[in-house]
Amino acid sequence: MGDLVPDNTLITPDAEAGRALAIKVARLTIKAMQQDGEIRKKLRPQYAESADSLVMAGHVVAIEFATIAAANNYWR
Amino acid sequence: MGDLVPDNTLITPDAEAGRALAIKVARLTIKAMQQDGEIRKKLRPQYAESADSLVMAGHVVAIEFATIAAANNYWR
Amino acid sequence: MGDLVPDNTLITPDAEAGRALAIKVARLTIKAMQQDGEIRKKLRPQYAESADSLVMAGHVVAIEFATIAAANNYWR
Amino acid sequence: MGDLVPDNTLITPDAEAGRALAIKVARLTIKAMQQDGEIRKKLRPQYAESADSLVMAGHVVAIEFATIAAANNYWR
Amino acid sequence: MGDLVPDNTLITPDAEAGRALAIKVARLTIKAMQQDGEIRKKLRPQYAESADSLVMAGHVVAIEFATIAAANNYWR
Amino acid sequence: MGDLVPDNTLITPDAEAGRALAIKVARLTIKAMQQDGEIRKKLRPQYAESADSLVMAGHVVAIEFATIAAANNYWR
User: Fold this and answer.
1) ipTM attached to this prediction
2) How far apart are CA C25 and CA C45, in angstroms?
3) How far is CA A52 from the centre of its chain?
4) Within chain E, what is the greatest distance between any pair of CA atoms?
5) Cα gap C43→D48, rounded to integer Å
6) Which helix (H) or strand (E) covers residue A31, if one does?
7) How far is Cα A8 from Cα A26, in angstroms, rounded to an integer?
């Protein structure tokens, strides 16, 4: 399985992959909370075409990334 | 009992379970603050059908997950 | 005394108690900022019957819990 | 002096004092950003009589407290 | 490649460069979530000419910077 | 130079100076995102005369301060 965390791990080869994982994990949580694909599709323009909504979504990605970066010891 | 933290522990076998716990813990807090099940049911569409509300809920899950991930030493 | 932190400690026996403390501490801060009990009572439905407000309150609990969990070394 | 951090230190004798410092530090920042006391007085009911505003203010206190608690090694 | 993290690293020579990276990384996430350049251009005034939106964007930069600063051991 | 981080360092002599740096750094980010001084001047009353906006700005300062405090090992 792995509906919430792809490959069930926070470890990624590099920062770029860590960032992509942060975006993915944030989206999978939304999906878990609103499982109706039709509704999610309808909601998408609500945030992708509003500056504030995009910033709010970017905010969540930033927090997910902080966790993933710490897990990977910042790919130092 | 364990009304706020299932099994009274932050330790989970893997990242996937940690993520599921983050969602669960966030919901249990809402439940503790609004104990009337009828009202909670009425409120559910308010957030599950609004893009911004879903992102705000996902934000809380991200913070809960950061704590759980640290507790589990990131399942490294 | 102990108007802001019950028993003046962040240490709790387990995660469940830590979570309860997080909720308590968040509420005591609100109480300290709005000391008029009549006004607080009037405000309560404002947040307890709004999905977004409950999520915002849950957000604060998540942050308080992160601190308490770290203080307790995650009850590992 | 010490317009932003009372006594110029984050160290407090106990958790209760740390919490009080968190509230104080949050207020002093507002004061530094809006130095006109008349305007601040006018704004006070805006947040003290709105549930969401109080939660937002409590949110800031939670973050300040996280820093102060870490500074004090959680008064362990 | 490196669409999300420039040069695929969080390590920067100094704090100034770390701060610039935080702004860049926040913007690249927005870009990844809204890939239509025309829409992004249309949204820009929405946040750059609203005080609250700028503060919200600055909030995200602050979180990205916290991660980058930790990665660089605070350039101590 | 140093358009984003004054003196290009997070290290300050004490907590008071660290707090002042947090406010400064938050402002410099806003300035970098909205470089038109006329627009910034016009926006200032928008946040300095709204309780919620001031709290939101204080929130960002709290996060910047957390990073600076950690960088300085909390001036212990």
Assistant:
1) 0.97
2) 20
3) 17
4) 42
5) 10
6) helix A15-33
7) 14
Alpha helices per DSSP H over chain D: 15-33, 37-48, 51-71
pLDDT in tens, chain B (76 residues): 469 999 999 999 999 999 999 999 999 999 999 999 999 999 998 889 999 999 999 999 999 999 999 999 999 9
Burial environment of residue C7 by CB neighbours within 10 A (0 to 12, 13 to 18, 19 or more)? exposed
Q: Are E65 and A65 in contact (CB under 8 A)?
A: no
Q: Where are the alpha helices (DSSP H) in E1-76?
A: 15-33, 37-48, 51-71
Contacting residues of C for D51, CB less than 8 Å apart: 43-44, 46-47, 53
Sketch the domain layout of chain A as residue ranges: 6-75
Diameter of chain B measured on Cα atoms: 42
- Angle at the Cα of F14 (from F11 to F19), degrees rounded to 5? 80
Pair E57, E26: CB distance under 8 Å? yes
Neighbours of F52 (CB within 10 A): 17
Confirm or reject contact between E52 and chain F (CB < 8 A): yes
pLDDT tens-digit series, residues A33-71: 999 999 999 999 888 999 999 999 999 999 999 999 999
Report CA B74 to chain centroid distance, whole Å. 18
Q: Kindly state the tokens that stand for E59.
A: 């909030």
Q: Is the pTM of the predicted complex or chain greater than 0.95?
A: yes
| Tokens 């009572």, located at residue | C41
**CB of C38 within 8 Å of any CB in chain B?**
no
**Contact check, Cβ <8 Å, E29/A61:** yes
- SS3 string, chain F, reads CCCCCHHHCCCCCCHHHHHHHHHHHHHHHHHHHCCCHHHHHHHHHHHHCCHHHHHHHHHHHHHHHHHHHHHCHHHC
- Assign A6 to helix, strand or coil: helix
Q: What is the DSSP letter of E5?
A: S
Chain E residues with CB under 8 Å of A15 CB are 5, 8-10
E22-75 per-position pLDDT tens digit: 999 999 999 999 999 999 999 998 889 999 999 999 999 999 999 999 999 999
E24-28 — which CB contacts under 8 Å span 24+ positions? E25/A19, E25/E64, E25/E68, E26/A58, E26/A62, E26/E57, E26/E60, E26/E61, E26/E64, E28/E3, E28/E4
Q: CB-CB: which of A16, A58, A69 is closest to E60?
A: A58
What is the rounded CA–CA span in Å between residue F64 and residue F67?
A: 5
- How distant is the alpha carbon of residue B45 from its chain centre? 17
- Distance (Å, whole) CA C18 – CA C70: 10
